[in-house]
Design goal:
Distance between the termini: 45 Å
CATH class of the largest domain: Alpha Beta
CATH superfamily of the largest domain: endopeptidase domain like (from Nostoc punctiforme)
Helix content: 25-40%
Number of helices: 8
CATH topology of the largest domain: endopeptidase fold (from Nostoc punctiforme)
Structural class: alpha+beta
Radius of gyration: 34 Å
Strand order of the largest sheet: 19-24-20-21-22-23
CATH architecture of the largest domain: Alpha-Beta Complex
Oligomer: single chain
Number of domains: 4
Low-confidence stretches: 4-55, 72-133
Shape: globular
Length: about 425
C-alpha cells in the first residue's frame, strides 16, 4: 500500500538508472558523497606528478654513477694530475645531476609543486570544518551575511529605518535573516518573505550569529506529493492521524536523510510520514509577515479589527494551558482571549469551541471564522482564519503564535461565530 493519495510525484527524483555500467552506476551513486573534493583530485594528480619528478632524480643519480665508474674512472691513469681529474669529474657530476634534476622540474613543474602544496593545505583546512553545517564559503542554511534575532520574545521589522514606520513583520527569538545593508543603527534585512528594517541592537552577527544558528538549525520536510498520510507509528499498517498537503513544511523531530520514516511536528500533535514523498533541508526560523490583508466585499469591520488584533501577538510564546496573549497561551486559550475582547465568550478547549456557532464549508470561510483540526477524529487544535487561505494560531511550543496555511493539514470542521 502506497502512503499517498492522488500522488503526483512518486519519488523526489531519485529514479533507477538503467543500461549503465557498474562503474558508471557507482560513480553516479557516490558522486555527491564519496568522491573527493576538486582540490583533493588536483592534489592527487599533483602527487602523481611529484612522484614522476622523484623518479627522474633517481635516474639522474644512477646515470651519474654509471658515467663515473664506467667511463671516467677507467681513464684516470691517463691523467697527469689525479686531483685535477677528480675535480673535473666532480664538476661534471654536479652538472649532470643539476641537469637531470631540473630538466623536468623547470618553472612549470615548480608551479605544479607549489599548487600541490597549496591544494594540500586547502584540504587540511577544509577537513577541519567538514561535518559543520556551514560550507567553505561561510554559508549556513542559505545565509551568507547572517543575522540572528537577539530578543526574548519578538523583533519588529519595519517598512523603513524609523521606529515610527509601519510594521511589516516580526522575528521570534533566534530567528534568522540575511543582512542586506547597515546604515547607522538600522539594518536592512530579508527573512522569509519579509523585507524591511530592524535595529542592529537586537541582532547577533558574525561568529556569534553562526554559533547560535548551529544550535537552532532544524531539519524540515517539504511534502512532494498531493496529499500524504500522517500515521501514528512508522508503518503503513499504522492508523492515519491526519493528511498533509503538497509543498507544506514540517519540522522533523525524529529521523534523517537516511531514514525511511520521519516523525514530524504538526501544531500540538506529531506523527510519522514516509520519507519517500518529501524533500529535506536544514533551516532556521524566519520572520512572520504582517502584510495588510485584502478582504473581499461584505467583510465587516469587526472581522477586520479582530484579525488585525489577533496578528499583534504573532511571535509571542505558546504555553500549554495558558490564556495570556503576552505571557503565553495555547491554541484555544489564544482564540478564547481574542474573541473575549469582542464580546464573544468561548469555551476553554478547542473541542468545546468546535460546537459553538454555525458549521460552514471551508470555501465559505471569512476572516474571523474558526478552523478546527482533529487527530483520529478528535478535535485538538484551532486557529483563526485571516483570509487568503491562512490562519493565525498558537501553533506549538517551538514556534509560538504564527500564521499558517489554513490547509497545512486537513481541517476537520469550520465554524462561524461572528455574525
Amino acid at each position: 500500500m502506497r502512503d499517498t493519495v492522488f500522488k503526483v510525484n512518486t519519488t523526489d527524483g531519485s529514479l533507477p538508472l538503467f543500461g549503465q555500467t557498474a562503474g558508471s552506476l557507482y560513480e553516479n551513486q557516490f558522486a555527491q558523497s564519496a568522491r573527493p573534493s576538486f582540490a583533493g583530485e588536483t592534489d592527487a594528480n599533483l602527487g602523481h606528478a611529484a612522484g614522476n619528478i622523484r623518479i627522474n632524480r633517481d635516474m639522474a643519480l644512477c646515470l651519474s654513477v654509471f658515467i663515473f665508474f664506467f667511463i671516467l674512472f677507467p681513464f684516470r691513469a691517463e691523467a697527469k694530475n689525479l686531483s685535477i681529474v677528480s675535480a673535473g669529474v666532480g664538476a661534471v657530476l654536479d652538472d649532470i645531476a643539476t641537469y637531470f634534476t631540473t630538466w623536468d622540474i623547470s618553472e612549470n613543474y615548480k608551479e605544479v609543486l607549489s599548487a600541490g602544496e597549496a591544494a594540500a593545505e586547502y584540504n587540511t583546512v577544509s577537513s577541519d570544518v567538514s561535518g559543520s553545517d556551514a560550507d567553505n564559503d561561510g554559508v549556513l542554511a542559505g545565509y551568507t551575511n547572517l543575522g540572528i534575532a537577539n530578543v526574548n520574545d519578538h523583533l519588529n521589522i519595519r517598512e523603513a529605518p524609523d521606529e515610527n514606520a509601519e510594521l511589516v513583520g516580526k522575528m521570534t527569538k533566534h530567528a534568522a535573516c540575511e543582512i542586506l545593508d547597515v546604515s547607522g543603527n538600522w539594518a536592512h534585512i530579508k527573512s522569509g518573505k519579509v523585507d524591511g528594517y530592524c535595529n542592529t541592537e537586537f541582532l547577533y552577527t558574525g561568529s556569534k550569529a553562526f554559533e547560535i544558528a548551529e544550535k537552532e538549525i532544524t531539519l524540515v520536510a517539504t511534502i512532494k506529493t498531493t496529499t500524504l498520510f500522517v500515521r501514528e507509528s512508522p508503518s503503513t499498517e499504522a492508523a492515519v492521524v491526519t493528511m498533509v498537503p503538497i509543498d507544506e513544511d514540517y519540522v522533523v523531530t525524529e529521523g534523517d536523510k537516511d531514514s525511511n520514516w520521519l516523525k514530524i511536528e504538526i501544531d500540538e500533535d506529531d506523527g510519522w510520514i514516509s520519507a519517500e514523498y518529501v524533500s529535506l533541508a536544514e533551516t532556521l526560523d524566519k520572520a512572520q509577515s504582517l502584510k495588510e490583508l485584502k478582504y473581499g466585499e461584505g467583510v465587516s469591520n469587526v472581522r477586520v479589527d479582530l484579525v488585525n488584533y489577533a496578528k499583534q501577538f504573532i511571535g509571542n510564546r505558546y504555553v500549554w494551558g495558558g490564556t495570556s496573549l503576552t505571557k503565553g497561551a495555547d491554541c484555544s486559550g489564544y482564540v478564547q482571549s481574542i474573541y473575549r475582547k469582542y464580546g464573544v465568550y468561548l469555551p476553554r478547549t478547542s473541542a468545546a469551541q468546535s460546537t459553538v456557532g454555525k458549521k460552514i464549508s471551508a470555501s465559505e470561510a471569512q476572516p474571523g471564522d474558526l478552523f478546527f483540526y482533529a487527530k483520529k477524529g478528535r478535535i485538538g487544535h484551532v486557529g483563526i482564519y485571516i483570509g487568503g487561505g491562512q490562519i493565525v494560531n498558537a501553533h506549538s511550543r517551538r514556534t509560538g503564535i504564527r500564521i499558517d496555511n489554513a490547509y497545512y493539514r486537513k481541517p476537520a470542521v469550520v465554524r462561524r461565530v461572528l455574525d
